[in-house]
Amino acid sequence: MPVAIITGASKGLGRALAEALAARGWDLVLDARTPEVLKGTAVALEAYGTRVTALPGDVTDAGHRAALVAAARRLGGVDLLVSNASALGAEPLVRLEALPLEGLRRALEVNVVAALGLVQEALPSLREAPAGAVLTVSSDAAAEAYETWGGYGASKAALDQLAAVLGAEEPGLRVWAVDPGDMATDLYAAAVPDDDDPRPDPARVVPALLRLLDERPAGGRYAAPALLEGRR
Predict the structure, then answer these.
(1) 3-state SS, one letter per residue, for the chain
(2) What residues contact residue 35 under an 8 Å CB cut-off, 6+ apart?
(3) Can you tell me the mean pLDDT for 146-174?
(4) Are the C-beta atoms of 75 and 29 separated by less than 8 Å?
(5) Of 55, 149, 188, 218, which residue has the fewest beta carbons closer than 10 angstroms?
């Protein structure tokens, strides 16, 4: 069966995608920072009859990234690498004049540097896969100027560019950056805690990601709402 590595997989979009893949028979290597929550997710997904390896840790740790890829190889390889783990830079978000530089560094380390490091670790296995693919979770803040979203948006814009260049350098792979749109996640709640407006459950975004896996369009940046509507 195909094997996916998903970072930030204990909750939100990462867990929703992991569950959808488990239902399709994929084997999974899951990452998150909170061991107890990640273990609960793994137990729930094993009920689908798939093999699930849960490795708690920080994606900025090179040893942890190597362990994720090694676990996937033990399951058969790496067919899909999903970079979903994200850091905001400040919680709640603040204007650029008040953004702690250490927070910006953390956002860049998690959202960009670690994502590239994991790709570098997994590339040999991805190249060997029959249909290797990389999916990076972007944001509309990478393309639009929203007050207080500057640090996070800059990191996601950098991730988008890395994904675009990786796609050009690795024509044998599919490399997709996906803007999932608004979602009700812990990340958004931490970013804007005073916003009580209802937002879609992350599970509603998953069919857009599955469409990419099923149809394998050319690499590039995609918006989940357009994919859900049948557009690209």
Answers:
(1) CCEEEECCCCCHHHHHHHHHHHHCCCEEEEEECCHHHHHHHHHHHHCCCCCEEEEECCCCCHHHHHHHHHHHHHHCCCCEEEECCCCCCCCCCCCHHHCCHHHHHHHHHHHHHHHHHHHHHHHHHHHHCCCCEEEEECCHHHCCCCCCCHHHHHHHHHHHHHHHHHHHHCCCCEEEEEECCCCCCHHHHHHCCCCCCCCCCHHHCHHHHHHHHHHCCCCEEEEHHHHHCCCC
(2) 56
(3) 98
(4) yes
(5) 218
pTM of the model: 0.97
The mean of the pLDDT values for the chain is 97
Q: Which residue has the tokens 């400040």?
A: 90
pLDDT at 231 (0 to 100):
77
Task: List the structure tokens of 27.
Answer: 């084997």
Supply the residues annotated as catalytic. 138, 152, 156
For residue 158, pLDDT over 90 is answered with yes
Instruction: Judge contact between 72 and 29, C-beta under 8 A.
Output: yes
